[in-house]
Amino acid sequence: MEDNKIIGVLSFQGSVEEHLAALEELPGVTGVPVKTREVLKQVDGLILPGGESTTIGKLLGIFGLLEPLRQRILQGMPVWGTCAGMILLAKDVVGEAPHLGVMDISVRRNAYGTQLDSFQATAPVSEISDAPIPLVFIRAPWVERAWGSAKPLLTLDGHIVAVRQDNMLATSFHPELTGDRSVYRYFRNMIG
Fold this sequence. Notes:
Blueprint: E1 5-10, H1 16-24, E2 29-34, H2 37-42, E3 45-48, H3 53-62, H4 66-74, E4 79-82, H5 84-89, E5 90-93, E6 103-108, E7 119-123, E8 133-137, E9 142-146, E10 151-156, E11 159-165, E12 168-171, H6 182-191
Parallel strand pairs: 1-2, 1-3, 3-4, 4-12, 5-6
Antiparallel strand pairs: 6-9, 7-8, 10-11, 11-12
């Protein structure tokens, strides 16, 4: 049997409970909420959930986690940012200062519009799943451009909505709001 992996979910704001519930469905995975440096040190990988990126970025600073988290990512800890989490990872955020600034992507916040412009789609993501996966977009960002070793995994209507760079994964959409666990399994495999 494989080693059990501890996957943290940054737990200041956003779809924390939904991510933790999805992680419970994966064999060999324990999901834990992360709010302190001590817990951050114990996780094998971390999910940065959707929510409000500016608020989460400020809370990372207030709780003294911004630099320790940046260092863990730069040292190779697998991290997956969904929606606001994608914005937190980006080296460039259109119209505002970056937060963690670790991923070779430029992101536009609320690129699809307001809450009313939220939508669902289904698309194949060959690197993640053999079958098309459901995609839920809520006030979602998109990637304006990717460079360096950042590799787009999914482009929808001309916009990059999933990208991977080494130990980092970012999705504009919310897999935690569907019953499909393909992206979770993919992230679990990134942890090794």
